[in-house]
Amino acid sequence: MYRQAYYDEDFLNQFNTGNDFYMDDVEDSYPESIRRKSLKLPDVRSVDVSRHFTRLSEMNYSVDLGMYPLGSCTMKFNPKYANYAASLPDFRDIHPMESQLKTQGTLEVMYNMQQFLVKISGMDYATLQPSAGAHGELTGILIVRKYFETRGEIDKRNEIIIPDSAHGTNPASAVMAGFKVVEVPSNENGLVDLEALKAAVNENTAAFMITNPNTLGIFDDQISEIATIIHNNGSLLYYDGANFNAILGITTPGKMGFDIVHFNLHKTFATPHGGGGPGAGPVAVKSFLMDFLPVPIVVNDKGTYSLFYGLKNSIGKVSSYNGSFGVVLRAFSYVLKNGNNLSANAKRAVMNSNYMAKKLSKYYKIPYKQLKKHEFVLSTENTGRKALDISKFILDYGIHSPTTYFPLIVKEAMMIEPTESVTKKDMDYYIDVMEKALSVPEEELKQSPVNTSVHRIDEIGAARNLILKWPAPTENH
Amino acid sequence: MYRQAYYDEDFLNQFNTGNDFYMDDVEDSYPESIRRKSLKLPDVRSVDVSRHFTRLSEMNYSVDLGMYPLGSCTMKFNPKYANYAASLPDFRDIHPMESQLKTQGTLEVMYNMQQFLVKISGMDYATLQPSAGAHGELTGILIVRKYFETRGEIDKRNEIIIPDSAHGTNPASAVMAGFKVVEVPSNENGLVDLEALKAAVNENTAAFMITNPNTLGIFDDQISEIATIIHNNGSLLYYDGANFNAILGITTPGKMGFDIVHFNLHKTFATPHGGGGPGAGPVAVKSFLMDFLPVPIVVNDKGTYSLFYGLKNSIGKVSSYNGSFGVVLRAFSYVLKNGNNLSANAKRAVMNSNYMAKKLSKYYKIPYKQLKKHEFVLSTENTGRKALDISKFILDYGIHSPTTYFPLIVKEAMMIEPTESVTKKDMDYYIDVMEKALSVPEEELKQSPVNTSVHRIDEIGAARNLILKWPAPTENH
Amino acid sequence: MSETDEILDYLNVKSVDGLFSDIPDRLKVSLDLGKPMDEFSTIRAIEDTGRKNKAGNMNFLGNGIYDRFVPPLVDEIIGRNEFLTSYTPYQPEISQGILHSLFEYQSIISDLTEMDITNSSMYDGFTSLAEAVRMAYRINGKSEVLIPENIYKSQLSIIKNYTEGLNLKIITYGFGTDGLLDLEDLKSKVTSDTSAIIVENPNVFGLIDENAFHVSEIKKDSILITYYDPVSLGFIIPPGEYGTDIAVAEGQQLGIHMNYGGPLLGLFSFKKEYVHRSPGRLIGLSKDSEGKKAFVMTLQAREQHIRRSRAMSNICSNQALLAVASLAYLSIMGSEGLRKIALITMNKSRKLKNNMKSAGIKPVFDGINFSDNLFYFDRLEILESNNISGGIRLSSISEYNGYGNASFFSVTEKTGDENIEKLAKILGD
Amino acid sequence: MSETDEILDYLNVKSVDGLFSDIPDRLKVSLDLGKPMDEFSTIRAIEDTGRKNKAGNMNFLGNGIYDRFVPPLVDEIIGRNEFLTSYTPYQPEISQGILHSLFEYQSIISDLTEMDITNSSMYDGFTSLAEAVRMAYRINGKSEVLIPENIYKSQLSIIKNYTEGLNLKIITYGFGTDGLLDLEDLKSKVTSDTSAIIVENPNVFGLIDENAFHVSEIKKDSILITYYDPVSLGFIIPPGEYGTDIAVAEGQQLGIHMNYGGPLLGLFSFKKEYVHRSPGRLIGLSKDSEGKKAFVMTLQAREQHIRRSRAMSNICSNQALLAVASLAYLSIMGSEGLRKIALITMNKSRKLKNNMKSAGIKPVFDGINFSDNLFYFDRLEILESNNISGGIRLSSISEYNGYGNASFFSVTEKTGDENIEKLAKILGD
């Protein structure tokens, strides 16, 4: 039995309880010409701010409440020692332009994290600057662009090939960096269709962007052949690291033949996702691309760390300062602590995924019958029930639904990634609920969820009657 | 509308998910003769520990969720800056026997807190050693004892007089310190019956223990006369500080003629109550009792602070080390920040109490029609409904009930202390709920609460079939 | 039988390695990251590394990131497990907490800027600025963007990276000797091809730029993008009041620690007619099937996970948690609190300029500074020997041609008056 | 109209002062506590004061309070608003979170000690010991209590304070030259008047006291009170296994920071037949009206708020939050974790004794030490000049007659091997 908390919570600008943040009076002798006429921030006491957010938080699901098997999101446990590390004033209260002499600790963490990522990916150099996975993709593709620019080929090399099973960020990032996107279909096994790929690859091909295992959770063992096709064409091979948790310590993009990799620290390296962010999306490259990385990178000269700007073909900057150091520090803590045991996490994640896939295959169709890696995709089509309805039904049991309707190549898709942080008991419970979703009357399914804070929400109405801001406060009498 | 979260939460020893707190192997070469045969702590992963307590916490009401008007408990907002202060490693990671040269910061806080309390109470010296209010009472009464011992009067002075409206800890503490308790009834105004007091005071009287304002929230303006009666008899006057929030910065026990005072830092000084504790119960005394204080006290010699043990009639120790410094530091932060504005808190608390009393007097009988201080007591007797039922009904609205069935001299009592941390809106909502409790059918009242995690609990069954420990874990298969 | 054994049994494999048979052996690797550590040793190692940082309390660094007071209540709120460890609210029924909060964030930033709509966050200030340029291009398809001549190099670099392939021409406009933007110069450069004009206020020189208030009068059909300082809006005229179409800023000052410059918070607001061209996530207010107030992510068809290569942006993860931090910060401070913090900042800048002047170090401009102050001072070795942080050279962060040997000293409400006096004394000696 | 004005209006008073007309003017005061401060200045002032503490990392202090590793998860759990800012669960229906947790605390400490029942916490170890003496007296009404000759002065002082008025005679028993309690001496002092025997294990000398395992054989009708070290129970035979009637301890080591010695956590367990004579709160398992598992405070009739002067104790506020901390700590560590921590502690003690011996500083006893180690060493000035914390003199904390110039050096799992070596080297020089 489960029941999420519900509070009929007002907007903060409706409280009118009187601000109580005490400060002494301040001299004001500035001209009217620069002064704003009025400012209407909420007028609320600290106690009410505290209560407001405590109540709201209880209306929010999270990893710290239970299983959260969103496919491709790797919602593993976020260890508290990493939060502790990120709370240390020695790291937290450092200005990004502080002298390098005074920030050796910070630079050491960054350097060591670069090296960790290089080893984990089988690449040669890394930048920590991108703010999120998609930002890493953009950075990687800008590196591709700059690479072909310096070779005088950019006018010709204006296409990026992407599989139809790819994450939506891949094509979006490619376009932002000024490329055209060419989509190649998957074959009947859910893998890259080599013939289709060969047909798509030509003189215009700048790069091929893929993730392996792909969004179906399947490892594409043609990868070396793919790399040969791409490299023989003078193109680059880009690794989307969203699914890295499957291969951590097992294989590397470097071994597979990739030239550029991005990481999602908030997935593979267990940093908390914060309701949508912040994340961090470092990028690693083979040595021939090092010169194109964003500046600065951190270098180590016999234990003295410094920011190195001397990459003459650098793409420059992709984020305001030095990247999401607060996130990097958490991920660094995670890697430092687990060390070579990290592969055990990958193994357990893969084991859990295969367990759920096999169990659920009794009730749901699982296309592309193969060994799964960290995640798998099932279709509810065979059950006559909508993935949407089942996803809402699941919520009623105090657990979060899988990613739904992705990847696009599977109808009524549910994409399930249990991660290593769940137990057999968690999975069995989840499987029971998914079985139950097929046995309850259709009507009950359609009415779910009923145990969550609110019931099913009118999403179409939200878009049609767009309300993106609270109403002005009602006057207090 | 309100609904508290509910999780059907297992006991930790039922998880069996496998402990994952990594440590290297450890050498073990100790004899069998000292080794325990088995140890059965829960076998659970950190992620499950985190989830367990996150879920449990959502099934718990707190000040950070809303109004909590437990009479005599002073559930005011616990400011976060005070928590922050208590989290500083410079204070938190200090051993109690650390050299005084290395703990000048800690000693300075303690000294300054002693001085704050001395000023606030109109006393001369203070000890921070007692761990809670009742512990402060015991300490105070042990001082009374020692005082009469040194005067050779202890065989005779073996009684403590206590009003019938007193907190239950008062008689319990007096008895623990080896005294007999003599109870005096309140008069028709809820105040000390002077004639009864005079009749009770005699050569056996060691002290009179009272709180002012008393548990009815009424300030006893006979206090100076009372002090004269007690002092003329050679007895001591003890101030129970549980209700200090009413008089903070308005008057002092010193002015009123008291000799000994205890404080509840977790009430008056806004330190969090932690679901029952820890608290802290410092004691302050007039200078003629200084020599009896527990040792050590902190003294200041031109900015150098030290622990002073040289009180030759000290009662010795009442707690293991130096008292609840972590609690003292929070309270110190609160006093430091508010300074002379503390009296504004007292005033607002009293204003709120009178507002609620007047509003509620339309529906409930409020005995002893007088000005209230920080709290007041109503009786549900006139409504034909039980205080118990109304208190359960209140819970259904996401707010906590008042203290019920106390003080004992009022039938069907509800004791309400809003504190300064609530707004008019909070109080109006509360009053509406208490009004509504009289208009819903009796049956509905009896069935409440229904919006809380669990419904009404069988308390008699709990005592009859005593289960104070979880069952042994069921084997995992 | 352990859980693992039970599962492997069920899967009919002898060991977990059997689940990796699809990965060719020649691709397999083993890690070289060191031995696992216990939790205490991990923490001790990180604390020891942290102690190698030696930032002192004479801190005059700013230029976009500021050491402002973060109320502990803010840290506590964003430390709540339910916010911290949740994902993007794809299932809104079980995620009302973060949705409600982000909706309020959108609202409070809209109120602060007096703009119509604010999205639910971007990575940081500079990428927000670049996304604003892209958005302007999507709106009007025009080919030129006008930027201040003193723009930070980093801002410019990111704009260039973000507009690869758009064929946008970047044109700079100048500044007067008073340090304010040159309205005449700007006016002369606005053409029918102008897609957007970027204005910064306070500008890169740290001045509250009164000329910025008049750019809308000369902008013609172009989009006015204002890069503002959110704390300054506690006192200064907000972008919405002077004709801004897209207002962007760095939100770090609003309750977020410096963290060596990240994670940050991009504030992104715009006029409502442009909503369908805007990047990022939007939280909308709706109702549930029982009529209760309920929030959802809306207009998702603009986003990459639906529209893929035709999306308004590639942004997916954003800075939701920090958006909540800024909401909490602004609510705690309130209008009066933010006003005072803005005023204290301006007063401290004035005091700094006065003290420096008295010590013989000339401010480059006479105008009203917010946090950043530019001085004719280049003996940076004095700073190091006195353990003072500050003195960022204009030439190191901007291509601006002039005042080459001038450098910045920045203040916040936390800057001690005694430190200001000490700084002037040391530098004047 | 402000809230205050509205309320005053309703109350028919001109100002709030009108609500204090019942307090005679001659009693009125005004505060002299200083001006109010803003939050930032308050925090800065406290941080500055904190920096006046100078504890280094050469820490060999123990004797009851230990610098053990506190997993950040423990701090996070007890920092949850819903636990931290709640009161004693007088309304159980809305307080199941803390009740469930405290019930689990009772259970886990009972499992750890192998005792039947544990209450939901006491103030600290020493007051628990004193309460145990009072409880024994309530059980059998006898007039003598036997205590170890080396008992801490503080323990003794608190026992005396807590038994004022009981007319209990306190009698000490001795120790052998091996540092273990003298069973013969103890046996000779047990009479039909003996109310209780207090045994400490590890004892005050820091030794695991194997003789303690045999006291139940000679205790006759008296109550055996064992004062134990909860971390030692990760490896050592628990009190319940050797006939203990009441087991008490200081729980600070279980996930609670030292905090200069408070707040602490009193662990208090006993045999089930004595439950009605026990002090403190008890949480019981029951059902709600729908049959769901539900928890309540039970047997409250023993407590002061019901029974007043005839209560089992005056305790009201206890240490609930820290009880939850210890529960979280033990759950995180698990049996294997606690075993390792106990073993590491013993191994470090052995290493310390070996290194000290090699450096010419003789341990007073050869037995197996847990955390505390007593050495013939009194040149305490060396410690200060080398910034070493430790070297508590036996004579300063116990009245024990002998080993007058011996002092303690204590270890935990956090004590670095390099610090042990350094200590021996410095002290041996």
TrEMBL record, chains A, B:
InterPro entries in the record: Aminotrans_V_dom, GDC-P_C, GDC_P, PyrdxlP-dep_Trfase, PyrdxlP-dep_Trfase_major, PyrdxlP-dep_Trfase_small
Keyword Oxidoreductase tagged: yes
SUPFAM superfamilies referenced in this protein's UniProt entry, alphabetically: PLP-dependent transferases
Domain spans labelled Aminotransferase class V: 151-274
Catalytic activity: N(6)-[(R)-lipoyl]-L-lysyl-[glycine-cleavage complex H protein] + glycine + H(+) = N(6)-[(R)-S(8)-aminomethyldihydrolipoyl]-L-lysyl-[glycine-cleavage complex H protein] + CO2
Gene Ontology BP annotations: glycine decarboxylation via glycine cleavage system
One Pfam family linked to the record: GcvP2_C
Ranges of residues in domain Glycine dehydrogenase C-terminal: 346-436
E.C. number: 1.4.4.2
Residue ranges the record marks as coiled coil: none
Keywords tagged on the record: Oxidoreductase, Pyridoxal phosphate
Domain of life: Archaea
GO molecular function, one term: glycine binding
Protein's UniProt keywords contain Secreted: no
GO cellular component assignments: cytosol; glycine cleavage complex
NCBIfam families for this protein: PRK04366.1 (NF003346)
Name recorded for this polypeptide: glycine dehydrogenase (aminomethyl-transferring)
Species for this entry: Ferroplasma acidiphilum
Taxonomy of the source species: Archaea, Methanobacteriati, Thermoplasmatota, Thermoplasmata, Thermoplasmatales
From TrEMBL, chains C, D:
NCBIfam families in the cross-refs: PRK00451.1 (NF001696)
Pfam families: GDC-P
UniProt-listed GO biological process terms: nucleoside metabolic process
InterPro entries assigned to the protein according to its UniProt record, in alphabetical order: GcvPA, GDC-P_N, PyrdxlP-dep_Trfase, PyrdxlP-dep_Trfase_major, PyrdxlP-dep_Trfase_small
Residue span, Glycine cleavage system P-protein N-terminal domain: 3-427
Stretch forming the signal peptide: none
Membrane-spanning residues: none
Annotated GO MF terms: glycine dehydrogenase (decarboxylating) activity
Protein name per UniProt: Glycine cleavage system P-protein N-terminal domain-containing protein
Source organism per UniProt: Ferroplasma acidarmanus Fer1
Keyword list, A-Z: Oxidoreductase
